[in-house]
Automatic annotation (TrEMBL):
Motif Histidine triad motif per record, residues: 100-104
Name listed for the protein in its UniProt record: Histidine triad (HIT) family protein
Gene3D superfamilies (UniProt xref): HIT-like
InterPro entries, sorted: Histidine_triad_HIT, HIT-like, HIT-like_sf
PROSITE patterns linked: HIT_2
Superkingdom of origin: Bacteria
């Protein structure tokens, strides 16, 4: 499904260029144009899905594939061992700026705490 007014659908269609790091029949990954970390890649399904709230049972294999690709990219980009963050923002209060399901893969240095959430207590 393609949505005419969707930035990421236009990237998938090739009408807007991107710095691609991965592509298969269902998934595209590319460098973020405004990176928040030394490694900042966006991983998107080629199928338009507005957000995680719109994922159906039919889409679950695709979500699994996105996570598999994230693991592969973390290794390829050299952040698997040192650590990385995989983030999906869902809805306006989360900071989701593009209404097309996407994940941010961040790494390549110490990443700051997210809204006071830390794993240091475990």
């Amino acid at each position: 499904m393609f949505k005419e007014d969707c930035l990421f659908c236009k990237i998938v269609a090739g009408t807007i260029p991107c710095n691609k790091v991965y592509e298969d029949e269902q998934i595209l990954a590319f460098h973020d144009i405004a990176p928040a970390a030394p490694v900042h890649v966006l991983i998107i399904p080629k199928k338009h899905i507005d957000s995680m709230n719109e994922v159906t049972a039919e889409d679950l294999p695709l979500i699994s594939d996105i996570h598999r690709v994230a693991i592969e990219l973390a290794k390829q980009l050299g952040v698997a061992e040192s650590g990385y963050r995989l983030i999906n923002n869902c809805g306006p209060d989360s900071g989701q700026a593009v209404q097309h399901l996407h994940y941010h893969l961040l790494g390549g240095g110490k990443l700051g705490a997210l809204t006071g959430i830390s794993d240091s207590h475990t």
